[in-house]
Amino acid sequence: IDASHIRNFCIIAHIDHGKSTLADRLLERTGTISDRDLQEQTLDDMDLERERGITIKSHAVRMQHTTDAGETYTFNLIDTPGHVDFTYEVSRALKACEGAILLVDAAQGIEAQTISNAYLALEQDLEIIPVMNKVDLPVARPDQVAMSLEELLGEPAEDIIKISAKTGEGVDELLDLVINRVPPPTGDPDKPLKALIFDSIYDSYRGSVVYARVFDGTLNKGDAMRFMATHQEYDAEELGVLRLGRQKVDTLKAGDVGYIIGSIKDVSHTRVGDTITHKHNPANEAIPGFKKVKPMVFSGVHPSDTEDFEDLRSALDKLQLNDASLTFEPETSTALGFGFRVGFLGLLHMEIIQERLDREFGLDIITTVPNVEYRVRVSEPGDDDQELVIVNNPSEMPHYGDIDAVFEPFVKADIIVPSEYIGNIMQLCENRRGVYVNQRYLDTERVNLQYELPLAEIVFDFYDTLKSVSRGYASLDYEFMEYRESDLVKLTVLIDKDPVDALSTIVHRDKAYEVGRKLAKKLKEKIPKQLFEVPIQASIGRRVVARETVKAQRKDVTAKCYGGDITRKRKLLEKQKEGKKRMKQVGDVEVPQEAFLAILSVD
Ligand code: GDP
Ligand code: MG
């Protein structure tokens, strides 16, 4: 096909605004899939995605569309996830496209990820087509929403197309709009090869399957390739395009999106963001890669059975191929043995990785309470040299007496909410040490509140609380801002007088006593009575701030039941409880696995 008849675009939107449903309609209208084969959200092919109704990975699919004038176009559609944790997936997808459909729910209006995604697309210089979806809903308020979109993008309100991804209304006009507004790919098929890896998956039979967008040059089946960043060389054994499955082709050339397979067994050789060129006649320089994403939340992930350590490592290796943002390094805990300190983008990301380890790899794991990454300034006595220590595991916090200052990550948070809930939201943010920045009305009913918040205060349950104090109407987006000094201390938990590394946490001094008391109490509930009396203490430095005692007795303590609404942290706790009630020997004391997450149930 001639590049002038190719359109590479993606659909971006806030979660639930209808991306996957629109993708279904496009697949149907273009005859890519027959009605018979169409399931809802066809592109969400991971089990986990179906169950949760959310898109986790970006998906690419190629469609053919013939206009009324009889011209046939090739569309490469890249579906993207909408949750804040997965912004990095969106930014990758955008790199492979010339245009983006920005979908907005006509009833909900602009939400936090509508804005952040629009900015991502603007940064990449994409042609943005704003589209109002769900106009079939009786509660849709298209005129108001169109006005706020005009405000956001400068697109005249009356020009904004109104569709229903559910009924198909307006979808044909949208296809025409994509053809007319999204520029065809530029690039020269005769230049040296430059293809950008925007995703890759691990296939146990074929090795690494690379998804790439060719910017310049032509790749033929059998060509010798070079991966510019990793300096690896492989032959392109199979090339293809992505229909609903893989479809082999002989050539991928400038403008095309497709997959490449080359017996690549080492997953680290195919890094997302890397450029593929030819071994002979290589390109001079690589395509600028993606912004490297940094994990924000860390947690210890340990196999329940120490024998599974190597299996856990290879599972994490494989997950990392799909997920450049996942980091891990080995750690040893006196309580939990060998495991990894794993870095995640956020709690949802962490939950998903845990579930995938369980489902796809059959691993039984224990996780410790998540924490952010701290920077600690240590001053040696009698020495002016001050060094910054990076701490992503509370048990590695320097000694209390050596610490000069502790810095924690702050984020800029945008919260969009109907005005009647402003009071609740402000109160929530103040409780979480938030600093008010400003507020701005998006339309007559919705307000964008800006706060600066410590990341540590929002990683656990902020999102759930935000939803509950706004009856589900608030949406949140945040981005890392800077490290700031805070009065933080390490709270050490001692069981039977022994500090337990996997239980220590870092908290603000103002909250330390309260958290210490509650945590000790919780642990008392979770730790079954032993044959002897077990003291549980919480301390800051040498100072004990709370003490409880598990009395000597044999009887089992019945587990507490949870009722009420299921928040994310509760789900985590329940998940943990589901697992076999294996005990960990800590000194002479048997500690159940769920005790390691006790702090999550401290309110
Ligand atoms: P995504 O998170 O952006 O991928 O959103 P989905 O495509 O999963 O859609 C979220 C929900 O909105 C689903 O229950 C869809 O059936 C529903 N939905 C999507 N588009 C429309 C529409 O045009 N009209 C109505 N009434 N519902 C829609
Ligand atoms: Mg979706």
UniProtKB/TrEMBL annotation:
One of its GO terms (biological process) is positive regulation of translation. GO terms for molecular function: GTP binding; GTPase activity; ribosome binding; translation elongation factor activity. GO terms for cellular component: plasma membrane. Residues 4-186 form the Tr-type G domain. InterPro entries: EF-4 (IPR006297), EFG_II (IPR041095), EFG_III/V (IPR035647), EFG_V-like (IPR000640), EFTu-like_2 (IPR004161), LepA_C_sf (IPR038363), LepA_CTD (IPR013842), LepA_IV (IPR035654). It catalyses: GTP + H2O = GDP + phosphate + H(+). It is a peripheral membrane protein. Keywords: Cell membrane, Elongation factor, GTP-binding, Hydrolase, Membrane, Nucleotide-binding, Protein biosynthesis. GTP binds at residues 16-21, 133-136. It is an enzyme of class 3 (hydrolase). It is found in: Cell membrane. Belongs to the TRAFAC class translation factor GTPase superfamily. Classic translation factor GTPase family. LepA subfamily. Belongs to the GTP-binding elongation factor family. LepA subfamily. NCBIfam families: lepA (TIGR01393), small_GTP (TIGR00231). Required for accurate and efficient protein synthesis under certain stress conditions. May act as a fidelity factor of the translation reaction, by catalyzing a one-codon backward translocation of tRNAs on improperly translocated ribosomes. Back-translocation proceeds from a post-translocation (POST) complex to a pre-translocation (PRE) complex, thus giving elongation factor G a second chance to translocate the tRNAs correctly. Binds to ribosomes in a GTP-dependent manner. HAMAP family: LepA. This is Elongation factor 4. It comes from Longimonas halophila. The gene is lepA.
